[in-house]
What we know:
By secondary structure, the chain is mainly beta. Helix content is 13%, strand content 46%. The protein is globular.
Amino acid sequence: MASCLKGEDYSNVIAKENIFNSKNILPIAEAFKFDVKIKENTILLKWKIDENCYLYRDKFKFTSGSKELNLNLPRGSEINDQFFGEMEVFYNSFNLKIDLGDLDDLEVVYQGCHKKGYCYTPVKKSIKISSLKK
């Protein structure tokens, strides 16, 4: 494979090999298992992150209606990412509690990568909070 990618360094060869060989890359729903629960006046968002993947801290976006929520996310681990440079990421799991207040719906956007050099497209989850309340 290296001969057909003449002039590229080894890390680029590895990244391209893995991008085009999908058997090495998990489907996004398995890479980032997402769960949501309502408890009392709080919504709990949970991500179980595959051991070979990570989520970018600054790629999270939370909106309700047309209003973007300004949430203070915990600090992540610092990495030098091959796609975005210096970044903070979450490994293994990430949990976030949000006060429901008068939220009726919640849209969550997040993005992550596989350590072998594959970045997933951003994921958008729409949550109808009233349907989760019991």
